[in-house]
Every structure is written in structure tokens, then in C-alpha cells.
Amino acid sequence: MLSVETLNASYGTVPVLEDVSFALEPGEVVALLGRNGVGKTTLLRALMGLIPSREGKVHLDGTSIGSAPAHAIARLGMALVPQGRGILGKLSVADNIRAGTRAAGAREALSIDDAIAPFPMLKEKLAERAVTLSGGQQQQLAIARALVCRPKVMLLDEPSEGVQPNIVTEIGKLIRELSDRTKLAVLLVEQNIGLALATADRCLVMEKGRLVHAGPADEFRNDAVLKRYLAL
User: Fold this and answer.
1) What is the pLDDT of residues 119-163, one digit of tens each?
2) 211 in Cβ contact with 22 (< 8 Å)
3) Are strands 63-64 and 78-81 parallel, antiparallel or unpaired?
4) SS3 at position 93
5) Is 184 helix (H, G, I), strand (E, B) or coil?
6) Can you spell out the DSSP letters for 98-130?
7) Among 34, 156, 199, 232, which one is least packed by beta carbons within 10 Å?
8) Is the model more confident about 222 or about 126?
9) What's the pTM?
């Protein structure tokens, strides 16, 4: 569903991503792990077309998107739930979700009711301004806004950040259920190791802009592996 070959990107003249290669299969959840500042968020932004890549090939469901602008990549079926959520606080919950429908492209967008079906607590808040929601509710809204366009690939950047533990657990279960049921491919950047391992099929480890290790999620339940790659 997503194929990345020797992707390189930089901020100005400073290299940030170096020869990053990996693939996502339909229905697969892959966790991208690594210490702060190693380039994980930069990778998501480069895949989404928000920063230019210098070299490399990126294909989404067989279509080359390496030089495409962000709006075109979204309409081809990739959705980003950014770190910090990117909620439009002055708009209502319903209008935030309507904004997401613009990324549906040729795919028929979900109805608002269908988009929030996994998040029943949002149903009673559709008319409220998004800024009034709790951190967990805002994260659920950000995911619903991404789901409304029926993406093929979802990029999730730190969905547990600032979210109460019970909602974190619910988000993890939802990601897994969606991936299994709809064959949505998910690339998950997450510092919460418990959430990452409970959700992912595989894990990738990034150091200084390079992928240095890959393996099944069960491998990372070993304390020695975690200590080696994540200093935990």
C-alpha cells in the first residue's frame, strides 16, 4: 500500500532523513520508534508532502507521490493525524470533520455520523467549538477528521500525547480494529511503548534520520532490545 525507497530529506542544507526505505502492507500497523529528535515526525511530513524530499521514491497504492503536493497526496488516499492534533479550535466539531471531507478526492467521503461512530462521546458535542473538548476528545476528533475521507494509509504522530490513559487504550484498540476490518495501513509514531506494542504488527527503529532496525512487535517486549535501541 505504501512503498518508500531511499528517501532523503533536509531542512535547508541540513540532512534529516538518510536513505529511508520500508513498506506498509494493507491492513498492517507499523510503529516507528526512536528517541526524540531523530526524524520521525520529519518522515511523516515528508511522506505527506509537507516538506520536500531530495531523493528517493514513494508510491501510494502503486502511484508515485514523491513530488506531489500535500493536497494531491491526501486525495490519493493518505491521511496525517499530526502531533498536536491540528484541530481548528474556533470551528465546531462537525465543521472540523466537514473540513476533512475535502481530502476525499474521487472517494466518497463518510457521513459525519459514520466518521464519529467509533467515538460516541463526540456525538453529543457536534455543535460545540472544538477548543472546548478535552485532550482525549480532541485526539478522537482528529482521527475522525482523517477517517472521514476513507484513507488507504494513515500517518499517526504521537496520538497518546496529552491523552488520559483510558482514552489511549481505546485509541489503540480502534487503530487495530480499523486496520483489521478495513485493511487501512497505519504508520504510528509513538513514545508510549505500551500503546505501540499493543497495536503494531512490526516496529521500525530510527536513529539520526536512518532506519537502523526492524522486527516484529513481540521482539520489542524484550528489555534488552528496548535498552539497546531506545535506552529504556
Assistant:
1) 998 999 999 999 999 989 999 999 999 999 999 999 999 998 888
2) yes
3) unpaired
4) helix
5) coil
6) HHHGGGGTTSPPPPHHHHHTT-HHHHTTTTSBG
7) 232
8) 126
9) 0.91
CA distance 32 to 213: 10
3-state SS, 1-24, equals CEEEEEEEEEECCEEEEEEEEEEE
- State CA 22 to chain mean position distance: 15
- Report residue 132 as a C-alpha cell: 472546548
Q: Angle, nearest 10°, between helix axes 135-147 and 165-182?
A: 10
Instruction: Give the residue from 175, 173, 138, 137 showing the smallest Cα distance to 156.
Output: 175
List strand residue ranges (DSSP E) for 25-148, in order: 29-33, 53-60, 63-64, 78-81
Residue located via cell numbers 497504492:
61
Q: Cα(135)–Cα(140) distance, rounded to whole angstroms?
A: 9
